[in-house]
Amino acid sequence: MPRVTVLPAGLVLEARPGQTIMEAAREQGYYWPTTCGGQGICTSCTCSVEEGADALDPMGPAERRTLYAEFGEAQVRARRLRLACQARVRGDVAVQKRGVRQA
Ligand code: FES
User: Fold this and answer.
1) For a substitution probing ligand 1, which of 21, 23, 30, 43 has the most ligand atoms within 8 Å of its CB?
2) Would you give the distance in Å from CA 17 to the centre of its chain?
3) Percent of the chain at pLDDT above 70?
């Protein structure tokens, strides 16, 4: 199963292929910051991809629209930002996200 490493805490989550990062975290008993409940509109779940960007499904138009509106295209590209509630895992990936903790 793909593994999602969450920094700086160093958590390692197992994800089923096609599961979002946030779904994987919740399923394994972790809280992932959110205010919209995973609908792709609040950006509270935003993480930056440190390694394995290609192991996530490409960003869809709705995710792109939400991230660009909040952070601007340049920041999204430079920091490799993704919405954890939308980004689907296909292989091993490492992301930066503060505030992920045991639920
Ligand atoms: S949880 Fe709100 S955008 Fe991801």
Assistant:
1) 43
2) 14
3) 100
Domain 3-102 falls in which CATH fold?
Ubiquitin-like (UB roll) (3.10.20)
pTM exceeds cut of 0.90:
yes
**CB of 33 closer than 6 A to ligand 1?**
no
The pLDDT-based confidence of 59 (bands split at 50, 70, 90) is very high
Ranges of each domain in the chain: 3-102
Rounded (10°) CA dihedral 48, 52, 54, 56: -60
Order of strands, edge to edge, in the sheet holding 3-7? 11-14, 3-7, 93-96, 46-51, 81-83
Helical residues (DSSP H) of the chain, grouped into ranges: 21-27, 61-71, 73-79
